[in-house]
Design a protein that fits this description.
The complex is a heterodimer of chains A (275) and B (312). Chain A is 41% helix and 12% strand. Chain A has 9 helices and 7 strands. Chain B is of the alpha/beta class. Chain B has 2 domains: 166 residues, Rossmann fold (3-Layer(aba) Sandwich); 127 residues, Rossmann fold, CATH 3.40.50.920. The longest helix of chain B is centred in the N-terminal third of the chain and has 15 residues. Classes of the chains: A alpha/beta (275), B alpha/beta (312). The complex binds thiamine diphosphate and magnesium ion. The site of magnesium ion has 6 residues of chain A, from strand 4.
């Protein structure tokens, strides 16, 4: 259990990061709002509580590593990296601009703190599996984390990686599934039902946990539980709300790839108690 | 200023019409039906529309099965995921057996813009062109897209059609005809020829107008059919104008530039300059910024024309 004040501080960080996400998307005038907001509480727990990393030394060999498999949530990742100090918060204003190091989708060769290139869905998890194997081969205790979308897991490659992670007994791999129930064309269940997810990962010999993906205490406990699990990778199915934190973006597929307008930004910031 | 239409919008309209005319026309998508515009068909014919979810390889495989069962499937997603993610399914399940499937790939090239290099397909024409039995089309504008989609539906075999995200100027007229394997001379000229495809055709027409002011007579040949290529039209341009500039929103390797060079080397060698991405991936930015950065503007075409003429 985390101390009450630790949880409050993380929640405050997540609120601040939501503000950064909305501002950068509004400035960029394009990008993915819904899936960045549904993922930010999990990313906050990872970057500001769970992971061992050193923003002043992004290439530190023994760092824990994070792979944003659902690469379109790049704004959430960039907000965390800036907050952690990998680069200046001012850079966030250049998101998606020509010449910016903050590309529309994460680019390991441009952005400090980004571990691999993602954006084509379904490919990040395989790379996380490779990183987890490399960590073991090198005798490092470092852990590998990844975040998947619930539409993303429709890709066949996800299940190939799922099979491999269990086969290689990668207990240093912990994956969070951002289960917000929506993809671009609508509800995941209606577009192409991939559920039930928990039993699927269980039958692939993963350790499976389910949490409220906006309850930071619960996420941190699940991450700790994953730490202690031996012989199997862990899948944390995080029940989330797409667009979480901004009532008029919540549960809406239509805000998947649409940035907040100026007016929406003003109203959203009011909701987040930021003016 | 001519009218602006996105080729993907023209596709949505043509596919809907084909659906009304022929009950064997079916459509598939991979969670991008709003962007690829197959959603228009899906709304009208829900029983003939299949969303594969985010599973492009399976989408292409299902399309192959539908074709084997007598349907005329149109399968769509972004060009990177169509030609890339589902490449081997296209090879083994469509090209090798000559399956009657139309892969209509939208968001080709760098004018995808802000999404960045991971989403900008600059190699799809090359890899599709390398497949035996494959027909590869890259229309210039809205009207030609409608005609190309109809021609693909009428043709029995696999077709890859590359379309774009952004609005592009109309150069053809509504109801124009389109024949697989045939190019079109859009402007006569005697000093050199621009051979272009996709949205670069409109840029070449602008470049030719600029060159005319310098008393250079530039021909513009548009090839909406990359494969089969209109070999006669290309060789005629080589013979009559003696210098060629190719231009495409694609890598200079293996696409239109590659195809034209192959024909010219074997048939009638003359100097060629290839305009396109010079073996690099794209990046985030506005479509116009990227066209300028990668050298795909009328001004760049004028420079290329002057370069190639010095080599005559
Ligand atoms: C291979 C691939 N196909 C299609 C896309 C286009 N695309 C981007 S986001 C998205 C929907 C993702 O849904 P989900 O995984 O549920 O993400 P979230 O709801 O968390 O935003 C799609 C289809 C892509 N990026 N990669
Ligand atoms: Mg989702």
């Amino acid at each position: 259990m985390l101390k009450e004040e630790t949880v409050r501080a993380l929640e405050q960080t997540a609120r601040q990061l939501r503000v950064e996400i909305l501002k950068m998307l509004n400035t960029a005038k394009s990008g993915h709002t819904g899936g960045s907001l549904s993922a930010i509480d999990a990313l906050t727990a990872l970057y500001f509580h769970q992971m061992r990393h050193d923003p002043s030394n992004p290439k530190w060999e023994d760092r824990d590593r994070f792979v944003l498999s659902k690469g379109h949530a790049a704004p959430a990742l960039y907000a965390c990296l800036a907050e952690a100090g990998y680069f200046s918060r001012d850079d966030l204003k250049t998101l998606r601009r020509f010449g910016s190091h903050l590309q529309g989708h994460p680019d390991m060769n441009k952005t400090p703190g980004v571990e691999v290139c993602t954006g084509s869905l379904g490919q990040g998890l395989s790379q996380a599996v490779g990183l987890a194997i490399a960590s073991k081969l090198a005798g490092r205790s470092a852990r590998i984390y990844s975040l998947l979308g619930d539409g993303e897991v429709q890709e066949g490659q996800i299940w190939e990686a799922t099979m491999a992670a269990a086969h290689f007994k990668l207990d240093n791999l912990c994956v969070i599934l951002d289960h917000n129930g929506l993809q671009i064309d609508g509800e995941v269940e209606k577009v192409m039902n991939v559920g039930p997810l928990g039993p699927k990962f269980l039958s692939f010999n993963w350790h499976v946990l389910e949490v409220d993906g906006h309850d930071i205490q619960a996420i941190c406990q699940a991450l700790e539980n994953a730490d202690e699990t031996e012989g199997r990778p862990t899948m944390i199915i995080a029940r989330t709300v797409k667009g979480k934190g901004v009532p008029f973006f919540e549960h809406k597929a239509s805000y998947h790839g649409v940035p907040p307008s100026d007016d929406e930004l003003t109203r959203a910031l009011e909701h987040l108690g930021h003016s | 200023m001519s009218e602006m239409i996105a080729t993907r919008d023209a596709y949505g309209k043509a596919l809907l019409e084909l659906g009304q005319e022929n009950p064997r026309v079916v459509a598939l998508d991979a969670d991008l039906s709003g962007s690829t515009k197959t959603g228009m068909f899906g709304k009208e014919f829900p029983e003939r529309f299949f969303n594969a979810g985010i599973a492009e390889a399976n989408m292409v495989g299902m399309a192959a099965g539908l074709a084997a069962g007598g349907m005329i499937p149109f399968a769509s997603t972004f060009a990177v995921f169509a030609a890339g993610r589902a490449f081997e399914q296209i090879r083994q399940s469509l090209a090798y057996p000559k399956m009657n499937v139309k892969v209509v790939a939208t968001h080709g090239g760098i004018t995808v813009g802000e999404d960045g290099g991971s989403h900008q397909s600059i190699e799809d024409l090359a890899i599709m062109r390398a497949l035996p039995n494959m027909t590869v089309l890259c229309p210039a504008d809205g009207p030609e897209t409608e005609a190309a989609v109809r021609a693909a539906a009428a043709y029995d075999g696999p077709v890859f059609i590359r379309l774009g995200r952004s609005k592009v100027p109309v150069v053809f007229t509504e109801g124009c005809d389109f024949a697989i394997g045939r190019g079109a001379t859009l402007r006569q000229g005697t000093d050199m020829t621009f051979i272009t495809t996709g949205l670069m055709t409109a840029q070449a027409l602008e470049a030719a107008a600029i060159l005319a002011e310098e008393n250079i007579s530039a021909r513009v040949v548009h090839l909406g059919s990359i494969k089969p290529l209109d070999v006669d039209l290309v060789l005629q341009a080589a013979r009559e104008t003696g210098a060629i500039v190719t231009a495409e929103e694609h890598s200079v390797i293996g696409g239109l530039g590659g195809a034209v060079c192959e024909v010219i080397c074997e048939g009638y060698p003359v100097p060629v300059e290839r305009v396109g991405l010079r073996d690099v991936f794209g990046q985030s930015g506005l479509a116009e910024e990227l066209l300028a950065h990668y050298g795909l503007t009328p001004a760049h075409l004028v420079e290329a024309a002057e370069r190639v003429m010095r080599r005559k």
